[in-house]
Design brief:
Radius of gyration: 19 Å
Low-confidence stretches: none
Order of helices and strands: EEEEEHEEEEEEEEEEEEEEEEHEEEEEEE
Structural class: mainly beta
Number of strands: 28
Shape: globular
Largest sheet: 9 strands, antiparallel
Mean pLDDT: 95
CATH architecture: Distorted Sandwich
Number of helices: 2
Length: 348
């Protein structure tokens, strides 16, 4: 691993960029929030491209909140807190009672994580989240291991607790397989026959609806630009894709193929495998003005696509959804693999 200074946080803490590499793939991760600033892979012509939509500098990552970083304790949305073992925890929430990605403010993505272990091809980061952090019960110890192989970046999550709690971890990495510009020309395919429907605040209603016959049917490859501006009510609510898809699973916790993203221009293809039951697909619908990418170009709406592998949003408040409870003596484990390949056509 190559570890270099990346910048100094507003509170004076030094942040480092840690680069791990194989013969054909290189990934750079910050010890602040496990933020992925770059994944370098060869395109169809053999040229190395960064397929991650990174930001200009450390200050931009600090200001962004959740860009390319680890999300905890609970990825996605929770409404009006949670009940755990008969006690209600109100959590850190906005004026609508919604906690998004653990709550704004001191997010997991803005914190320095301990470098627990590292070698040329792997990096393990650790965070101890104290009891009451973001309003959640229990002291949680989370470990996330990033590993590169010749064609993939793998993320292995593990977490333990000293009191019963809920947990839902992901990395909110934004992909752009062309390296820059819009992802509207990318093609997306999802191994999902259904999605969780939401209300006007994007909180699940509890209904799991088939995608067949809707703009959310990505069971065969679809060009993103042909779908994200659909007038369908669910798409209009979010201003594009910002929805949880229910993945087709061969078994609970099985590492199954979940998604394929491809770019005809670069010829790069990303295949995603995960043990998680769901994936939140987000088409960068809301971008703050004055936010610049690593090339110094202002980021526009639809410049990236996030593929957030996770349990379903608001699961603790929907008994029919897969459980996110974690009890003392148990270990939460999750794996997501981003596998890259390339060909001239950009299709397979």
């Amino acid at each position: 691993m190559v570890k270099l200074p990346f910048g100094v946080k507003a509170d004076g803490q030094q942040v480092h960029a840690c680069t791990i590499a194989s013969t054909r793939l290189r990934a750079t991760i910050l010890d602040m929030g496990g933020t992925i600033t770059a994944v370098m892979v060869p395109d169809a012509q053999g040229r190395m491209r960064n397929v991650v939509l990174g930001l200009a500098d450390l200050a931009a990552y600090e200001a962004s909140g959740w860009w390319n970083c680890l999300i905890g304790r609970y990825a996605n949305r929770l409404k009006n807190g949670v009940m755990v073992d008969g006690r209600h925890y109100p959590l850190s929430r906005d004026s609508n009672g919604i906690s998004l990605h653990g709550g704004r403010g001191d997010s997991w993505g803005s914190r320095l994580w301990e470098i627990a272990e590292a070698n040329d091809a792997a990096l393990r980061l650790r965070l101890v989240s104290p009891d009451g952090d973001q309003g959640f019960p229990g002291t949680v110890t989370a470990d996330v291991t990033y590993t590169v192989s010749d064609d993939a970046l793998r993320l292995d999550y593990a977490a333990t607790t000293d009191a019963t709690t809920v947990i839902n971890l992901t990395n909110h990495v934004y992909f752009n397989l062309a390296g820059s510009g819009s992802v509207l020309g990318h093609q997306l395919q999802l191994n999902a026959d259904a999605m969780t429907m939401t209300d006007a605040q994007q909180i699940p209603t509890g209904e799991v609806a088939p995608v067949a016959g809707t703009g959310f049917d990505f069971r065969k490859p679809q060009t993103i630009g042909g779908r994200v501006d659909s007038s369908e009510p669910q798409m209009a609510l979010a201003g594009g894709l910002d929805h949880n898809f229910v993945l087709n699973k061969s078994g609970v916790g099985a590492s199954d193929w979940a998604a394929r993203l491809s770019d005809p221009q670069s010829g790069i293809r990303l295949d995603l495998l995960t043990t998680e039951p769901g994936i939140q697909v987000y088409s960068t619908n809301n971008v703050k003005p004055g936010q610049f990418n690593a090339q110094g170009i202002e980021i526009q709406r639809r410049d990236g696509l996030a593929l957030e592998t996770q349990h379903f949003p608001d699961s603790p408040n929907h008994p029919g959804f897969p459980s996110t409870l974690l009890r003392p003596g148990e270990t939460f484990r999750s794996t997501t693999i981003f596998r890259f390949s390339s060909d001239r056509s950009g299709s397979h």
